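To whoever is covering the structure queue this week,

Two jobs came back overnight. Logging them here so there's a record in the thread.

Job A:
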Amino acid sequence: MLSIFDQGAPATAPTPFNMAAHVLAHADALADKTALSVISMNDAQTWSYGAIKSAILGTGTGLLQQGLTPGDIVLMRLGNTVEFPIAYLGAIAVGLVPVPTSSQLTAPEVAKMVAELSPAAILRDPNIACPDTPGIPQLDTATLEDMRTLPPAAFHMGDPERLGYIVYTSGTSGQPRAVCHAHRAIWARQMMHQGWYGLQPSDRLMHAGAFNWTFTLGTGLMDPWSVGATALIPDKGVDLHDLPKLLKTHKATIFAAAPGVYRKMLSDHPDIHLPDLRHGLTAGEKLSETIREEWFNDTGTALYEAYGMSECSTFISASPTSPAHPGTLGTPQAGRRIAIVDDNGPVPLGTEGTIAVDRRDPGLMLGYYGAPEDTAARFQGDWFLTGDQGVMDADFYITYAGRADDMMNAGGFRVSPLEVEGALARFPGIAAVGVTDVEIKADTRVIAAFYTAAEDLDEAALKAFAQSNLARYKQPRLYKRLPALPTNPNGKLSRRALRETFEAKT
């Protein structure tokens, strides 16, 4: 048998459709129910469904009054506040195309995005890095906040295949790629509700991430709202050490975080009591069996892992009704068509190959912005190639077998080593540089930069240079000078050899 999980053609979104309208479909019926609590150790800012819908549609009206029209691209440079999801959904509600970006990006990194997208406007917190943009208006947070009380805009309904939003992901070429998604992408997320979350309207789902992380936007906000559940988000400045108390105090029933957050919580709190928690969710990087087992031993609740990517969100997962077999990611979610392929198509069961998604999947991207050749390169016949390796067994459980390339993972963000190497290569004195992620202790990986130079370089200066040119999650945590960088038989840098040699010596 071949490695194919096939449940037929995926369900399609209805026409006309609007992503924000889908997210807020229960808002009128649940007008007084809490949609969002922004929580801290001493306070909670609460938004009802009625209030959050009013703020979103008022913001939509304000954006249109600024002269923006449906189809316009709007770059978001906002911080970890509730303004982020309000502005994001407000833009989508009226047919604009928001581009959420990490607040950690530097002005030079953002300048490249501006040059590529030519946005019609930038929504900006003055405290968040952004280049000057002559001819492109920048709407500050005070302006956005004033929009919340404007009369509500009508939802811009239309073809579910039309462009809805754009997210950036690190590209294997070293240049971040703009991933274009249709409005229908939110429709596909329904397959996660039972295939991963076990999500119910009565749930109180707490996400550990910031508002301006796409993992938080989807799992922490839009998915709970689309079923009428309550979202709990830690306020900016909340320390990871305080998360167990917040979970308990606010009676969270589901908790979502990257594996590193669970690791930190377990190390800080050897005994965690969460009487209301049903289970935890994790994604962004591979969950270790050690963390999974320790969390269960400490809390009595399971962790359910999901695998996905910016181009298709998550599509393989474990869930309360279908726990993963030990060592596996879980199974494809009901409604998906997933395969393990090689150059000739799906491989036999039990054979390693590339994890692939049916090109008709409603959650799959439209393509990379302005890059049709890069888009086409990711497809093979009926399949979109993820670039990750896996093995499918006879029960459709998939074991992750690593990347087919050298992409790194930093706290849930995929990072291209080429992008980091390209930035560091400009530092005076560096002759050659190679970057990879290395394990410095059990379940802890960091980005490391290995370089050749006439002498050891000033590490403080290296770190300052990286800080000026790279978002924090892309910056190496370790620098090491080598006599020479290892190469493969073709003379190309071998990042695997860098990683293996370093880890063998630690």
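Job B:
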Amino acid sequence: MPLRLDPTFADALANRERPLIGLWVVSGSPLVAEIFAGSGVDWLLIDMEHSSNSLESVLHQLQVAAAYPISPVVRVPYGDDVSLKQVLDIGAQNVLVPMVNNAEQARAVVSAVRYAPRGVRGVGSALSRSARWNRVDGYLQNADDHVSLFVQIESAEAVENAAEIAAVDGVDGVFVGPSDLAASMGLLGQQSHPDVVAAVTRTFQAVKAAGKPVGVNAFDPQQAEQYMNDGAAFVAVAADVSVLARGSEALAARFIPATDAEQRTSY
């Protein structure tokens, strides 16, 4: 019997009744990915840009996440044809490309996730999990329906080009990264600076005007709520390593005298 693939993250966003809440998985652990997948959030961001995640570890995380009603999104380290082809072939249906600064770059990554004649994605469906080894009926003909592409705006240049980036056919949504955006504005480490927040909300307006959903990374709960009020359709609110770091620190602070804790962390 032919197999059917899950709806994409773009489908989930189109049918949403509220902002979709997500968590990052950067540890490379399939076990942690499964714990997060069953937590009740709407989507996971499996990151290959700022982590030790490999194709094999991403594959394992996609496999465990498949058992849960959640949308896994894979962020590639760079928007090149090879990285995107490999991630798609291991079964990622939703991909996020970092550091897209203009419409030309956006069109290039759209081409990378589409088969010819609409793009340059290499054909390997019989060999790959993407088409479940050709068990998905009509996968090649309907591949565009099985893939959603999101691009990341995270520079001052990209903010200025947000409307043109969002308008590119084949871009399903835009994700704003305040950390790198702040750095590009000369405000390194100041994601909540009023000028950075203003640039984020200006990007929201441009993307929404183009008819595309816009999301944002916001690990501060108050900031996340504000961005949702400002129109964010999807928000990443924490990462596995940050949850572990802050949670373990809170436990240590509760049970260990401050002087002992300082000595333990001073080296």
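Note for Job B: The CA atoms of residues 47 and 171 lie 19 Å apart.

Please reply-all if you pick these up so we don't duplicate work.
Q.
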